[in-house]
Amino acid sequence: MHSNNYTLGFVFIVTLILGTMLSFTKDSVKVLQEQNLKADVQKTILRSLNFDESLLLTNESIEQTFANNIIDEISDSINPSTFEISDSMYRQFSNYILTQEIKYETASNRLLESLKEAAIKAIKDGDTKYTAVDGTLALKKAIVEKFKRENNLNYSTDQITVGAGGKHVIYNLMMSTLNKGDEVIIPAPYWVSYPDIVLLAGANPIVIECSEEQGFKLTAKDLESSITNNTKWIILNSPSNPTGACYTEQEIKNLAQVLRRKPHVNILSDDIYEHVTYDGFKFFTIAQIPELKNKVVTMNGVSKSYAMTGWRIGYAAGDKEVIKAIAKIQSQSTTNPSSISQAAAVEALNGTQDFIPIRSLAFQERRDFVVNSLNEIDGINCLKPYGAFYVFPSCKGLIGKKDTNGKKLENDTDFVESLLENNNVAVVQGSAFGLEGFFRISYATSMENLEKAMSRIKEFCESLS
Prior knowledge:
Distance between the termini: 84 Å
Number of helices: 17
Mean pLDDT: 84
CATH topology of the largest domain: Aspartate Aminotransferase, domain 2
Low-confidence stretches: 1-68, 89-94
Strand content: 5-15%
Shape: globular
């Protein structure tokens, strides 16, 4: 009895001491080891600190665990979001033009009003409580109808998950399916969060550079050569952020031929820019290939199609077991997305869609202006994208030159920093998206802003020597 009391007292004291530390370090674990405490006592202490009790198995495992601590391992690799990249650069400047902001104008105004009304009605009706973890039945039904109506894909509501934005859905998917040693193929240029989410899940991002010459798109040959026995996922994003590149139906079918031969590889299709396409481009998603549908998780959302970036609603469709696994992860983190946002999303998906081609024409006009303006500048080359609202021009022809302050531009980061410092235009360097020598511009802003930005970029480039 006395022995047990002494042990419990010691557990309390050690827990108190360790709990006051700023972080639970390897040295803290050694404190426990040096006391020669029984394993169950050591585990009690760790549990009281909400720490993984597996850390106390052996000296060797402790050293290895801390050496592989996920935060230490990836802290130098994780990149800030593109908004943070721009924000950190332009805060100190006045009269800047931010080309990363996302604004939708006249074509979407009527839609935005209907969304607001749906949200207000939900509040007045008292729909402000917890919902099902991965989305209301009403929203899931609306998503099922969307896939059937627009993509000729049939799903049941238990194959649908809803999260707090597309990024949240992707994060939950990777956390629920990846193990250490797994690999995820990511074509570059990529959305900045893809590789970092994979790293956070403890797996390995396998980046395949897709050159400007191949339209920034992955080829079947490059895909096949990159697949190993450890490949768990490939991520496809069409239309693409940051390039606006769109895979044609045939190009997707070419990739599908490879994936049919690799049944251990799953596909994440990020279709968030599905409704932002130009020049009559026909959108096609890989889940529309019947033999692969059960291996595909198709992610989409309301932020880009319906100007609902701040409402934070993303969704995905896929295999029932995968969807269940996503719900388990979400149930221990955020629980359900906002009930108000879900009500507005139902209105977005079920309501009129007639604004989409009108808005696309407005974006297409801005795209054409930006692409033409950039291609008139010596040293800049810009492909014309067929989707999203980004261009990804090359600045390779200007690398090595000096700005008016005598600073030599060694890379694309130097280019975008000097452009901001000297001409007050904020863009994002291509290396942030995995491909050096480029920069990204968003044309989801006013034509007035774009005209000013193009004028300033031209003036900056002509000032280099």
